[in-house]
């Protein structure tokens, strides 16, 4: 029979696993927890709580303003290459 745990109970289990020094599979076996469920909850609890992004993948933003140079007089001199996989790259360049 499957137990239905609350998010708080899962958080306690995640914390216990981290403190135990056991790997996640070892901990799950010891506690009779489904490994896939444990990993799913560990990921859910580690991410910021955003209900509307469920299932759409993790969206995050990176502030690239620090790449623009320490002072305005130094001028923009950035070149950004994003490797998207399968040999696809997105290159962003700006000439001073």
From TrEMBL:
Q: What name goes with this protein?
A: IS66 family insertion sequence element accessory protein TnpB
Could you tell me which species this protein originates from?
A: Marinobacter halodurans
What broad taxonomic lineage does this protein's source fall under? Bacteria, Pseudomonadati, Pseudomonadota, Gammaproteobacteria, Pseudomonadales
């Amino acid at each position: 029979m499957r137990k239905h745990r609350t998010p708080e109970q899962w958080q306690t289990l995640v914390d216990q696993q981290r403190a135990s020094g056991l790997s996640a599979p070892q901990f799950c076996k010891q506690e009779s927890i489904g490994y896939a469920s444990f990993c799913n909850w560990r990921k859910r609890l580690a991410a910021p709580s955003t209900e509307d992004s469920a299932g759409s993948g993790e969206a995050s933003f990176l502030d690239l303003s620090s790449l623009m140079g320490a002072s305005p007089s130094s001028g923009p001199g950035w070149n950004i290459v994003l490797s998207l996989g399968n040999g696809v790259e997105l290159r962003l360049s700006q000439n001073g």
